[in-house]
Design a protein that fits this description.
alpha/beta
Amino acid sequence: MSAFRPRTAVGKAAMTAIIEHPTDTLLALDFDGTLAPIVDDPELAYADPDAVAALARVGGLLGWIVLITGRPAAVAVRLGGFRDHAGFESMIVLGQYGVERWDAATDTFRLPAEPNAIAAVKDEIRSVLETHHAPAARIEHKGRAIAVHTRGLDDPSGTLRRLSGPLVDLARRHGLVVEPGRQVLEIRAPGMDKGKALRSIVAETGARQVIFAGDDLGDLPAFQAVQQLRDQGMPGLLVCSASIEEKALEQISDLLVDGPAGLAAWLTDLAEAIMERGRASANR
């Protein structure tokens, strides 16, 4: 699908503003399912090389590139290879839904301490999985969160539904919340989400246009934040990295791409459109 043809009027208007004023534009995006493919082992979810290269290219044209992920910031930086790739010199990675931060310009991390409640959940969660007949579910300790993955099990969707209630109960007992995703349930501290993180970084940078690209329910608050910013007069473009597993974002997106490979193609189109606009302006 061409980057030049968003399917909504607000998306078309935002695309025009982005191409005409790229240095005033902030591009924010999710990691898993958007920049990196979804795989059984989250530790092996490296960013798609073509998507990274396209992101770096467009990063030299736009004002700001910001990754907003549920991953720990250090893990996202490692799996993305952002330190090793030209074009990310001013990138910002907001990890754990915005609680953690990495600034490429200084190569520094801000990493608040793990909540005590997460350690308590870590001690209990294995017995919860065994009680509810899911001992093979993968547990991922993210530092400030505990994720339970059912991908790779015989009935991943059914197991996820069966675990939902017990994990919500476990989270509530410790003052935590559950964040659903693609064949994953994540227990984490409340108070921050991708929408709040996006609004905060937009305010910090002073961006005049915003793009957000995501793929699942954890990205919904960021989509809603862009919709709110549009209501306040800021051009905003919503890009869904579509999949057969999660359809929640498709209906509210301006543009659909086919996973990380589709994102790479779209980012390449966007870079070429911006450069063509610049050449046309220079020749006037």
